[in-house]
Write a structure and sequence with these properties.
The structure is a homodimer. By secondary structure, chain A is α+β, with helices and mostly antiparallel strands. Chain A is built from 14 helices and 27 strands. Chain A has two domains: about 270 residues, BirA Bifunctional Protein, domain 2, CATH 3.30.930; about 120 residues, Rossmann fold.
Chain lengths: ~500, ~500
């Protein structure tokens, strides 16, 4: 469907990227805006992406001794007074609960009983989990303590965008406490590596790993680690953060332990989180002008079987063949479970079903018609290809045997395309002085720049206010700078990413 | 540990049932009160029970075409005006969000910007999901629509009790819409049957299925179905509810569809939910004076291996044997997955580990010591038995082969004990006129009475105000009334359960 063929989605990415984003979400039936300011409704097809995310992480957490728990939605206002720096980062965007009852008045229902102390709806749970850590941790034998929570959090959002910026969003937040700073920092980095594996090996999104600058790091953190990815509009998206807190939070919250010699020390803590915005990232990295495209490991449906029924005599045989295929493919495995295969038996035109599967980004479509039965072939279409190329398989068993490797090829292809896009559009500057020149130019996609960098708070303020550009991270590993750069000084200096961002 | 042996928990159930309940939760490390009014912190061991609950239901939902989704935490006040009767049931206990920002003043942080319209934190999502249903449903082809949500909800609670009554709790809420009343009612009953299966076959809790009286039903429902169970203090606990709404909610929220003849009709809706209080039920039905006892299918840990190390030469061999056992048992299956087996390698006395496993209600303990190795035996203790009877197995493979049936026996035994308890303490009255006499007497356990009943709102008001007794449900199936009853008139009349309740 490249070139002059019609596209399913209008506008295209080139024409209007933000409008394209809204439209692919709508046609794929992933989510919609709620009647509540800034909030979203995650529809079943979108929510399945989040369930797959949760299931993947829960296995990884378990391997690492991280235990799930649940802490309250509400945080007393008094808790926020304890950590002024941390709170300043959230005070502008918290929802405040002030009343506990409604009564009917002339104009309708009105809030009745004021609470003794207002409560805030958690924008993050550092404060309430830290309070528990202080009670639970007495001795070095209680360490390390590794807790994770899957929860909803609220931060008012003035300009909501589905998945990317919503007042309420879903996330996991991990919180750990350790006896030593080295162990805590190693854990923050270990979790960053788990996120990298998820991004690259599940979402097929290539990432840059690094740390935030002093002015961009989490309030109260010693170091904030991050993964950054480039979207198809050239903007950066932060996929997660992992913070090493030092003893900053432990001091504010009295998280102390007795070591083997009975000395009392503050614990070293970490926290790390990943939100529903990763779904937005998968859409913006992989989607094309026909809709979303989901990498197989996260796709709610990996294979859709579509019977081509023409209201003729042969329809019965076609439907039987489609059902037999469903049976066979359901018994095959891919990644961490059985293949997620469905048969579309809805009463509508086969062509519409086919487009529906395209728009929903289902990796493999099998379109079975009477002619295919005659010719003893199973036509398979891959959503990662723009063209409607068809691969014919001779029988159900041959296809079932190849299904797993076919899905793996799709994953690898989507990942490689994203890498190619990044290589094509990421600009490599030999010196930070080029930054202003590069971002001065308006165009699509936005520039995404790597350059050697030494932290400079004033410079960051200038590019942020003048060009809306931030330093996304200082890279853990320098990338080879362009060979045609006349002044390659990367050897002895760290590299940073400069970009506009979500 | 029956009779004169010491018990792990003080007070005992007989001495003070509510205090016993708090204490078994504390020693099993399941949950604790949060520093926020009426809220709880669900600790990892308690949260695992909820994760197992969710995993079981998700499979059942999927089989029935119920899809998970996520709706906003907040509901605009204006939505509540639409359904006055429904809202009256919640107005007294809703949390109201009135402000969107905090600012620092002299006295500390204070709420800053008032919202244009106050929001309530969902006490249930009928109103917000109904609003979506109205948009999503156009034609009979969009029906049935079956949506479920796993979420946190808030209803202020003045006298909180862990799991049983907390201001914030976790639940699943299912919402469906149908073209016909028959289909909707059948769905409400089908979900009640799913809950029954969960109660009896997973939680090992025998239940009574029935419907609520007019005065006890959900505000706005046509019929409320329920499962009721007897706790060890004789009180009843409602395990779930399933509501057939008729077209009441559809009318309030304009959920309409065009039928095949293009006539516009209101949809028939249902809703059904089960909360974290089922964990409280499992504790109160199965726990004994040594702690909680969890039926194997819900137990976070099904088998705990405890090496008896004595600081001697043989310790290495004992630990090796324990690890080999862990390896073998991990490879076996029970119910819907691999056996959840753990090895307790903590540095503490083996006897303390053993008591810890008892208090945590782990169904099977394997206590391996040097002497057992010598005698080539594996000592297995079952938590469902009060006595420390031991079953010896000759080797790992024999035990592994028997593990699944051993766990199944434990389930059956716990279920049978609960049935026996119910048969022993449930009183059968031949006529409703006996009710007042029965509840007049103070004692432990509380009376739990079955009697023939014809709905009478005045009578319900009398027993509620005078004795704190409610009608838990009108039974779907009459039970045979006591043979020594002089006046058995059950044949032509419905039976109801009269009890004090949680």
């Amino acid at each position: 469907m490249a070139g002059n063929e019609k596209t399913a989605v209008q506008p295209t990415r080139m024409q209007d990227f933000p409008a394209w984003y809204q439209e692919v979400i709508r046609v794929a039936d992933l989510a919609e805006h709620a009647p509540v300011r800034g909030c979203m409704i995650i529809k079943p097809y979108g929510y399945a992406l989040w369930e797959n995310t949760r299931n993947w992480f829960d296995k990884e957490f378990q391997k690492r001794g991280v235990q799930n728990a649940y802490f309250p939605l509400f945080i007393p206002l008094s808790f926020l007074q304890r950590e002024a720096e941390h709170v300043a980062g959230f005070a502008k965007e918290v929802a405040v609960v002030t009343h506990s009852r409604l009564v009917m008045s002339e104009g309708g229902l009105v809030p009745a009983d004021p609470l003794e102390e207002p409560l805030i709806v958690r924008p993050t749970s550092e404060m309430i989990i830290g309070d528990s850590f202080a009670k639970w941790i007495q001795s070095h034998r209680d360490l390390p303590l590794k807790i994770n929570q899957w929860a909803n959090v609220v931060r008012w959002e003035m300009r909501p965008r589905l998945f990317l910026r919503t007042s309420e969003f879903l996330w996991q937040e991990g919180h750990t406490a350790h006896a030593s700073g080295d162990e805590a920092r190693a854990t923050a980095l270990e979790m960053l590596e788990v996120y990298r594996e998820f991004a690259e090996e599940v979402l097929a999104i290539p990432v840059f790993a690094g740390r935030k600058t002093e002015s961009e790091k989490f309030p109260g953190a010693e170091t904030t680690y991050t993964l950054e990815a480039i979207m198809q509009d050239g903007k950066a998206l932060q996929l997660c953060t992992s913070h090493y807190m030092g003893t900053n939070f432990a001091q504010a919250q009295s998280i102390r332990f007795q070591d083997a010699d009975e000395n009392l020390s503050f614990a070293h803590t970490t926290s790390w989180g990943l939100t529903t915005r990763t779904i937005g990232a998968a859409i913006m990295v992989h989607g094309d002008d026909n809709g979303v495209r989901f990498p197989p490991k996260i796709a709610p449906i990996q294979v859709m079987i579509i019977p081509f029924l023409l209201g003729k005599e042969e329809d019965g045989a076609v439907l039987d063949a489609a059902r037999a295929l469903l049976q066979v493919l359901s018994g095959t495995s891919y990644f961490e479970g059985p293949v997620r295969v469905r048969l579309d038996e809805r009463e509508m035109r086969a062509g519409d079903k086919s487009w529906d599967a395209v728009k929903k980004g289902i990796p493999i479509r099998i379109e079975v018609g009477a002619r295919d039965l005659q010719e003893k072939r199973i036509p398979v279409y891959l959503r990662n290809r723009e063209k409607r190329d068809v691969i014919y398989f001779p029988d159900n068993e041959t296809l079932a045997g190849k299904l797993s490797s076919l899905l793996e090829e799709i994953h690898a292809d989507l990942y490689q395309r994203a890498v190619s896009y990044r290589e094509k559009y990421a600009v490599i500057a030999s010196d930070v002085s080029d930054i202003e020149q590069i971002f001065k130019v308006e165009g699509f996609p936005n520039p995404f720049v790597l350059a050697p960098y030494k932290e400079d708070r004033n410079f960051e303020e200038v590019i942020r206010t003048q060009f809306g550009v931030t330093i996304r991270c200082i890279l853990h590993k320098n990338l080879p700078l362009s060979l045609n750069s006349t002044n390659n000084r990367s050897g002895d200096r760290e590299q940073a990413i400069f970009a506009r961002s979500y």
